[in-house]
Design brief:
This protein is α/β, with parallel strands linked by helices. 38% of the residues lie in helices and 15% in strands. The chain has 12 helices and 12 strands. Strands 2, 3, 4, 5, 6 and 7 form a 6-stranded parallel sheet that branches. A two-stranded parallel sheet has the order 1-12. Helix 8 runs parallel beside helix 9. The longest helix has 25 residues.
């Protein structure tokens, strides 16, 4: 059976604080790591969220060098990472015309930086993919694959035509808010003071959902508020994603997804890639000393294809692979362009994404 994998990084699967592992556990881990290496070698591995700084995309300093960034070409080659979503991120600022204009310029600079890397700095090493078919084609040549995600729709201002512009620039997923309420949606950070701007999505945000569906840009729910996420899932005609979230049952952090959101995500046919950041993947509470049940609940609830980073390699939970197969046809019916729907087999070489 073809295995489908979401690229997630959850080192805690076998590295959770607690008693020293038994010899039986050490042996079991060795088998798991061996299995993980085999999976890693035969799939197209994907990092769904890699933040960037345009200063690292110049002729003098760029991703052909082994920089101190988590992702760059030497590290992708060393680690066996085939593809990465490079992120056009702009932090939340004032909801004013001046704020929107400044955010737009920041976003364009990041789009341009990614294109500069793939077209001028290292076109022989990495290429921009605009469709899942592009990912397959580029990976087959041996080059690395670049994709573009947009974190925070703030740079759109109030002009929804910019959604098509960002699509044309290569954006293939977008979140409607980050840390701070945007003109489109409330942020998870509203939990800090209980103050909300829209009680979920704004009217502009609801219109943005339809426009994102129209152009085939995946809706990312990793940072908006719970109500914004539930409303977005209900409104979207296509599966949504959580590009870098974790289960709230595992770590009680406002940006993590609780069971209600995970269940809604499952019914929507979407997927989540659990974040490996300690702040979002580990809880200080002793009730979470056993990490595996919450993680596996996350898989069953959300349709995540569980893949854990264990000592630098990927370990997959095959039990979740059938979830991806079941979302194939519904994703197409709900409006995903065939070339960009989120879950499909890659003939010849199996896939971490589609």
């Amino acid at each position: 059976m073809t295995r489908f994998l979401s690229s997630i990084a959850v080192a805690a699967l076998v590295a959770w604080p607690g008693a020293a592992p038994s010899s039986a556990q050490v042996a079991a881990d060795a088998v798991l790591i061996q299995r993980a290496r085999a999976i890693h070698d035969r799939v197209i591995t994907l990092d769904t969220h890699a933040d960037i700084n345009p200063d690292n995309f110049t002729r003098q300093k760029n991703y052909t060098q082994r920089l101190d960034t988590q992702v760059n070409l030497p590290k992708m080659k060393e680690g066996g990472l085939d593809a990465a979503f490079f992120i056009v991120y702009v932090g939340q600022g004032p909801l004013t015309e001046e704020g929107y204009a400044n955010a737009y310029q920041q976003a364009v600079a990041k789009f341009d930086a990614i294109h500069h890397l793939t077209k001028e700095i290292a076109p022989q090493e990495i290429e921009l993919a605009l469709t899942a078919d592009d990912v397959r084609r580029i990976a087959k040549t041996g080059k690395k694959v670049a994709l573009i995600g947009v974190e925070n729709a703030y740079p759109l201002g109030t002009d929804l035509s910019r959604i098509k512009e960002f699509y044309d620039r290569g954006g293939r997923y977008m979140s409607l808010a980050h840390n701070g309420h945007s003109q489109f949606a409330d942020s998870n950070t509203g939990e800090r003071d209980g103050k909300w701007l829209h009680n979920g999505l704004s009217e502009l945000g609801r219109k943005a959902i339809a426009e994102l569906n129209r152009w085939g840009i995946m809706i990312d729910i990793s940072h908006p508020s719970k109500q914004a996420n539930l409303q977005a899932i209900a409104l979207s005609k296509a599966p949504v994603i959580a590009s870098h979230s974790a289960a709230r049952a595992l770590a009680d952090v406002s940006r993590n997804l609780d069971d209600e959101q995970l269940e809604a995500l499952r019914k929507n046919g979407g997927w989540c890639r659990p974040s490996h950041l300690p702040a979002t993947s580990r809880s200080p509470s002793p009730i979470h000393h056993n990490v595996q049940p919450p993680l596996r609940r996350c898989v069953r609830s959300s349709g995540c294809r569980l893949q854990a980073r264990v000592l630098g390699v990927a370990a997959a939970d095959a039990a979740a692979s059938t979830r991806c197969q079941r979302t194939n046809a519904p994703a197409t019916r709900r409006g995903w362009p065939r070339s960009t729907r989120p879950c499909r087999a890659i003939p010849g070489r199996q896939s971490a994404i589609s």
